[in-house]
Amino acid sequence: MSSEAMDETMKFDSIVIGGGPAGLACAIRLSRMGMKVLLAERRHLPQEKCCGEFLHPTAVRELEALLGKTPAGQPIDRVRISALDISREFDLSTPAMAVERRALSKALIEAATRTGVQISENMEADILRADPNRFEIRIGTNSAHSERLILAEGASAAMTNKIKVAKPVSRVVYGFSARMEAVFDRKVALAAVSGGYAGLCDLGGNCVNIAGLLLPAAYRRLAPNQPGFGARLLAEIPVWAKIVQPDLIATKFQAPVCADEIRGDALPNGAFVVGDCGGMSETAFGDGIARAFVHARILDEVLHLHSGNSKNVAREYVRRIKNSLHRPNRFLLRLAGELLRSPILARTSLRVAGSWIHSMVRRATEPAGVPS
Ligand SMILES: Cc1cc2nc3c(=O)[nH]c(=O)nc-3n(C[C@H](O)[C@H](O)[C@H](O)COP(=O)(O)OP(=O)(O)OC[C@H]3O[C@@H](n4cnc5c(N)ncnc54)[C@H](O)[C@@H]3O)c2cc1C
Fold first, then answer.
1. What distance in angstroms lies between residue 321's CA and the mean position of ligand 1's atoms?
2. Which residue of 61, 151, 235, 289 has the fewest C-beta atoms within 10 A of its own C-beta?
3. Ligand 1 pocket list (CB less than 6 A)
């Protein structure tokens, strides 16, 4: 192939960095708009990520709007909240789902492939040049060019930090997840540990996913990937004794950087940030996937509205994300996150403010902003 021909094959309308829910959803939408789209993912696909595997009702609706169906999964209609020796159960405002990350990723990849997205897996991407509407991206040993760049690289946000006005990182949390055998009928659970929290989600068929987010000191104390983790966790959540095995060890773990929300208008024209790299805190536990899909849909809407790469698109995108109806849920989840990090506070709240917590759970699980 001549170098000119090679250059032509590496010219795209849009390049997406990251093959998680945010990147794949964007790639599908941009490709459906008639664009030539390249998606680069540094790991293998389907993605297998440390996750609670809970799909918030907003995520379920967004997925239906995107794919016309949801991948097979388990309906979830109740949440159990626990702290030390007490638990309370509440119903969700709308049923949610538990969908394995691998199945979710597969469904998104199939849709992306069908619409003509070119997917490069096991390919680390790096930004070589980021001028307005002209991006040069190194993908493996090749370089590719595009008018649009979609940053969907998850919480580590290295590329995003490379081209935005840098802000100091506010907090680092560690995530873990594992599967275990248990019956936990159509439920999701959250329990307080000191300096973090853990969750259970019924995947159906006697299989429960356990996941958690921990501040560094709690991660060192509980050591999820070391023998005896189950027993150490049970010492902090004794009410889970009948569900969690003492010899449990987490199989997946990660240290996401909780970047502050980025100022999208500081990016060069044509660059957009979607999903966790747009600013993630541990409140993404439970609604991070929903937020990723919301970002992809909003990007689609503003590109349709302004049909181009003008400054208006970036401004409108950031404005709509900030006003997105899904945001109040994140506020409530943040509050819940603060309460859950302290078992004594969480236990007192469960004892004295059960009905307030119930209404908070219902509001936090209302699907928001998805066009019907
Ligand atoms: C312990 C834990 C539990 C969670 N539980 C839930 C839950 O139950 N429900 C929920 O909705 N959310 C949950 N979340 C949050 C959820 O996982 C994220 O919000 C979601 O994955 C964000 O999607 P994303 O596409 O933005 O990022 P990611 O899913 O992280 O995808 C980013 C992708 O980009 C790739 N990448 C990064 N850099 C490059 C590069 N330079 N080149 C190429 N590829 C690159 C990465 O390999 C990765 O595959 C949880 C998070 C944690 C840590």
1. 18
2. 235
3. 17-23, 40-43, 47, 49-54, 56, 59, 124-125, 152-154, 159, 175, 177, 211, 213, 254, 256, 275-276, 284-290, 292
CA–centroid distance, residue 37 to ligand 1 (Å): 21
Residue at a domain's end among 309, 324, 339: 324
Please indicate, yes or no, whether residues 78 and 109 belong to a single structural domain of this protein: no
> Of 285, 333, 334, which is best to mutate to test ligand 1, by the most ligand atoms within 8 angstroms of its C-beta?
285
- Assess whether 191 and 46 both reside in one domain: no
Which residues constitute the domain of residue 219?
Answer: 54-97+174-255+327-372
The series of mean pLDDT values per 10 residues for the chain, 372 residues long, is 52 97 98 97 95 94 94 94 94 94 97 98 95 93 94 89 70 90 95 94 96 93 96 97 95 81 77 87 74 94 80 84 72 75 92 87 80 60
Task: State the Rg of the chain over Cα.
Answer: 21
Element (H, E) at 232: helix 229-236
276 and 361 share one domain: no
Do residues 84 and 194 both lie within one domain?
A: yes
Q: Do 25 and 64 fall within a single domain?
A: no
3-class DSSP assignment, residue 56 = coil
pTM over the 0.85 mark: yes
Residues 6+ apart with CB under 8 A from 33: 300, 303, 304
Atom of ligand 1 nearest to the CA of 40: 43
Q: Distance, CA 3 to ligand 1 centroid (Å)?
A: 36
Taking the CA of residue 256 as reference, the ligand 1 atom at the shortest distance is 53
Task: Provide the pLDDT for residue 332.
Answer: 67
Give the CATH number for residue 69.
3.30.9.10
Pairing between β-strand 74-83 and β-strand 187-193 as defined by DSSP bridges: parallel
Q: Which ligand 1 atom is at minimum distance from the Cα of 53?
A: 8
- The pLDDT of residue 356 is 85
Structural domain tally of the chain?
2
One domain for residues 142 and 270:
yes
Atom of ligand 1 nearest to the CA of 289: 11
Q: Are strands 74-83 and 196-204 parallel, antiparallel or unpaired?
A: unpaired
Instruction: Indicate which CATH number applies to the domain containing 151.
Output: 3.50.50.60
